[in-house]
Design a protein that fits this description.
The protein is an alpha+beta fold and 285 residues long. It contains nine helices and nine strands. The chain has helices at 5-16, 25-31, 68-84, 105-118, 121-128, 135-144, 149-159, 198-203, 262-267; strands at 34-39, 46-50, 57-62, 89-91, 164-170, 173-179, 213-216, 231-239, 244-250.
């Protein structure tokens, strides 16, 4: 994984402060003369308030955020604004942890900083790739590093060496997905989870397997290149307090014919990634 400039700052900060494992955000904030306070914020998840007189400041976190890991990510995001940009900032819920293609560049940079500060790539990568892909793997990272499940899932996909994807759905509709570099298939957003998937079974209150189990690949993946009988390994977990389900997809073996025609080059393009800044192109990996 090539770290972004923002991530490199976070990595350098961890090294300078000799941080190993779970980071003490209050101690890091103190290094920048920042205090952390939970306050009832209207329209904001977090804010960085800088003094006009000296270098002191306050990181305010919305006290109504339910998940402890989300609060920590918000604090790390605001520390990122302090390190990267220096100026005060007020961040809405859509500014923090928004990994979509249309995210504001300044907020994306703060997110990348926060992810590396909380979930250092060297440490997390070694842990993730020493085990088989599973939601338990992701949950253990989230618990050990006191990070949100969603941030840990995204980090998992950034660092895992096998073809995997994580899908987050709410009220049966896919909200976002994250893929490893080797998972080369487009996953739709804004559509219902497949009816024959374990994700839908979780929504219906049915028992789902504790470990990844095979399902027909065409339940999740639309491609004219899929091999007959192709399967993906799926593991889904219901999150009732969020009316959501988190799903892991794992490709244990090749499921599609090799790209060999012009139409197949366009077939797997993710429209959200189709920009001039795109780093990966079909057929060029």
């Amino acid at each position: 994984m090539n770290l972004s400039r923002s991530s490199l700052y976070a990595s350098a900060l961890r090294e300078e402060l000799q941080i190993k494992g779970c980071v003490d955000l209050a101690a890091v904030a103190e290094e920048f003369r920042l205090s952390i306070r939970e306050l009832p914020l209207a329209g904001c998840d977090g804010a960085l308030l800088r003094s006009s007189i000296d270098s002191r400041g306050i990181i305010a976190v919305n006290s109504s955020i339910r998940e402890f890991g989300r609060k920590r990510f918000t604090v790390a995001h605001e520390i990122g604004h302090r390190v990267l940009h220096g100026a005060s900032a007020a961040c809405s819920p859509s500014d923090v942890g928004n990994w979509s293609a249309d995210a504001k560049q300044i907020e994306k940079a703060a997110d990348e900083f926060a992810a590396e500060l909380l979930l250092p790539s060297k440490e997390i990568g070694a842990v993730i790739n020493s085990r088989s892909p599973s939601l338990q793997n992701i949950q253990s990272v989230a618990q050990e590093y006191q990070a949100s499940l969603s941030a840990s899932a995204r980090r998992f996909c950034d660092l895992v060496g096998t073809p995997c994807a994580v899908i987050w759905s709410t009220n049966e509709v896919i909200q976002w997905s994250r893929k490893s570099d080797s998972f080369r298939f487009f996953l739709q957003r804004g559509v219902k989870v497949p009816p024959a998937s374990y994700a839908m079974a979780a929504y219906k209150g049915k028992e789902v397997p504790d470990d990844p189990e095979p399902v027909a690949a065409n339940e999740w993946i639309e491609s004219g290149r899929l091999l007959d009988g192709a399967e993906v390994w799926e593991q889904s977990l219901g999150l009732r307090s969020y009316d959501s389900v988190i799903t892991l997809l794992w490709l244990k073996r090749e499921i599609a014919r090799e790209e060999g025609h012009e139409d197949s080059l366009l077939e797997e393009l993710d429209p959200e990634e189709f920009t001039l800044r795109r780093r990966h192109w079909p057929g060029k990996r």
